[in-house]
Structure formats: structure tokens, C-alpha cells
């Protein structure tokens, strides 16, 4: 006597198909892979550097942070050096260089105020991402100008435009750019190294650890303990900008 297997159940057209764990996981993995992009990789790299410093940034650690095989990252950033350049590009993209207004050749009367505002914005970015500051200073030394990521060159192009509009000739504007960012980088590096030996100590000499210095050898430095302890980065930046801008304004002033 033969037995006949029952026919397979007919799908209910009004009922949504049931997803198995395997199919759901595969779709999620496909979505995750498709969501990966250069921007996501660079943001994760910046977050990692902010949290743990530059030495922590490896392709392996970056892959772990993104939940990806490190080899998958190379589709978007070909090397660790490319990631470092991209981190610099990402930070500088948040710098708002003032746009030049008015007709071509018309001088900008408030170029000094614009440079001052930009300086404070650059300082803010540096304090928000202190571990990236060494990259901002040194990465340009590792790559020829024309081979750097375009995003790192836009502040240069925009600042040159602002300075030429203010009345500097193009070569003079380039000199001003170098002087300006040399000052800014020096300022932020100096501010970031203003460490306090004992934050709970009220006496400035003890707070900064200057009492360890022999008085005979360092009388002036010890005498400045109060000023050193009261360091104000924003005010210090403004004082430096006063000197810089007054010198630049004098170069633009007509002879006579």
C-alpha cells in the first residue's frame, strides 16, 4: 500500500513572508557594507584619535571600531597615510574661511577682523581635537602641495583670495598666509603644553611646579609664576593678533 505525502502548505497571500534569522542577518550585513564610505571611515578615525591619540590609529583598530574587516577599509582609504591626510581634511573642512564679498578688485575693509575671527575658530578646532594638532602642523611636510587632498588646500585658496582682495599682491598674500598659520600653529602648540603640576594648589609657584627650579638660575621665570598660572589662551591669541595685524596694516598703508 503506497502512501502519498501531503502537499506543501499554500502561502497565504495576505500574510507577510516570515524572515529567517539567516536571511535577516545577510540583509543587515549587506546594508552595513553598502553604508561604508570614505566619510564614515574618516569620521571613525577622527573619533578614535580624539579618544585614544594618534598611536591608536591603525587599520586594524579602525576596522574594529567600524565592525569591519580591516581589508574592507582599503576600498575607501588606500593606506594609513591616506587616513591621516583625510583626518586633516575632515578637520579643516570645518574651518569657515570668510567669503570675499563685493565686486572683483574691491578691497575688504574688515579683513583684519575676518583674520581674527578665523584665528579663534582655528584655536577652537585645535582645542576640540588636540591629538590632531600634530597632524595639522606636520602632514603638509609629508606630501607635495599638488598631491594633498583638495579639502586641505581650500583654506589656502580662500585665504589667498581674502588677502588679495584686501590689497596684498599675490606673492605678498602667500607670505602673509605662511606668517599667519605659522603664528596660529605655534600658538595652539604652546597653549596645549600649558600643563599644571598640581591643579588643587592655590599658590602659583607650587601649582606650576616652578618651586623645583633653582632661584639663582631662574629668577625671572619664577617671578612670572602668577602670569603663567593665569594663562588665558583666547586673550593671548588676541594679543598676538594685535601685533600681527598692526604690522600687516602698516604694509598696506600708502606711503607718505
Question: What would your notes on this structure say?
Answer:
By secondary structure, this protein is mainly alpha-helical. The longest helix has 23 residues, at 170-192. It has helices at 21-35, 38-52, 59-66, 70-73, 80-92, 111-128, 133-142, 150-166, 170-192, 204-207, 219-223, 225-229, 233-252. The protein has three domains: 34-91, Arc Repressor Mutant, subunit A (Orthogonal Bundle), CATH 1.10.10; 102-194 and 240-252, no CATH class; 195-230, no CATH class. Helix content is 61%, strand content 0%. The chain contains 13 helices and no strands.
Give a short summary of the structure:
This protein is mainly alpha-helical. It contains 13 helices and no strands.
Task: Give the topology.
Blueprint: H1 21-35, H2 38-52, H3 59-66, H4 70-73, H5 80-92, H6 111-128, H7 133-142, H8 150-166, H9 170-192, H10 204-207, H11 219-223, H12 225-229, H13 233-252
Keywords:
256 residues, mainly alpha, Arc Repressor Mutant, subunit A, 3 domains, 13 helices, 61% helix
Beta-strand proportion: under 5%
Q: Per the principal axes of the C-alpha atoms, what is the gross shape?
A: flat
What does the radius of gyration come to?
28 Å
Low-confidence stretches: 25-31
Alpha-beta content class: mainly alpha
